[in-house]
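Support request, please re-run this one:
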Amino acid sequence: MSRSGRAAERRAAYRRGHRAEWLALAALMLRGYRPLGRRVALAGGEIDLIVRRGGTVAFVEVKARANLDEARTAIGAVKRARFSRAVRAWVARHPWSAGLTLRADAVFVGEGRWPEHCPAAFEIERL
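Re-run finished. Output below.
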């Protein structure tokens, strides 16, 4: 594939991811979550969404794929480690959150489907 073809694919994937994150945020807000951050990059990792409901802060990984089954299997060990590193850095910068419940959630988005929220989808490593 040519360089321009790869660049076009990357742009399309970026747009799909951006749309999926907005859909995920809308779905979470309808469930009573309040946004605290979006696309937060810290310590070599990225957190797609940070939301709060009551005494819980949820760090959310959004995965968009052609179908929900593919999305559910898309969070691997390397992604979890980078995500956890970013969460630890965020908590260090926001000490008010230390007394709250901190959770790693996922929202899976499949084509033509409403986003599926999975609370506590994986553990935050060494928090």
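The beta strands are 34-42, 45-53, 56-65, 101-110, 116-122. The chain is about 40% helix and 35% strand.
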